[in-house]
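Notebook entry, structure prediction.
Reason for the run: the old model in the group folder had no record of what sequence produced it. Starting over properly, with the input documented here first.
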Amino acid sequence: MRAIFHADREWGIGKDNALMFSLPKDMKFFRETTKGKVVVMGLNTLLSFPGGKPLKNRVNIVLCPDDVDEDVICVHSPEALFETVKRYPADDVFVIGGASVYRLLIPYCTEVLVTRVDAVGGADTFVPDLDADPAFVLEKESAPVEDNGYVFTFRTYRNLSPKPF
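New structure, fully documented this time:
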């Protein structure tokens, strides 16, 4: 299992249940990386999508207390989530938010793909600082990319000891 998100300098990932930055190149990277794959999210992330509808061309798994949409697989506990994702190749499963789901699942991820934006977005939602976590190492980083007035890099962090599930 892997995670994917963009974060600002302070590891902020969102504001008012939305992304802080409009980065077409990052959105293209996200689409290309997750297309045809499995995406795992919480209810607020699902509701943040246009019309509150799941992402097309992906298996959408939502960790939430109640069934919400016939086009998603709803799981009601972390244990049920782990049983469900075991049905898919591990590298095809991407955790896509929100913050509580990232905090819960990043320790189980082998890899985390971070678009690191060189700006402060005024976030109200944050993820753990992977640079400060000894379990994670920065494996690779792209050259700086400029898009829509922002500069960012695409980073890949490797989890040295992912928790089994």
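Summary: The longest strand covers residues 150-159.
The old model has been moved to the deprecated folder.
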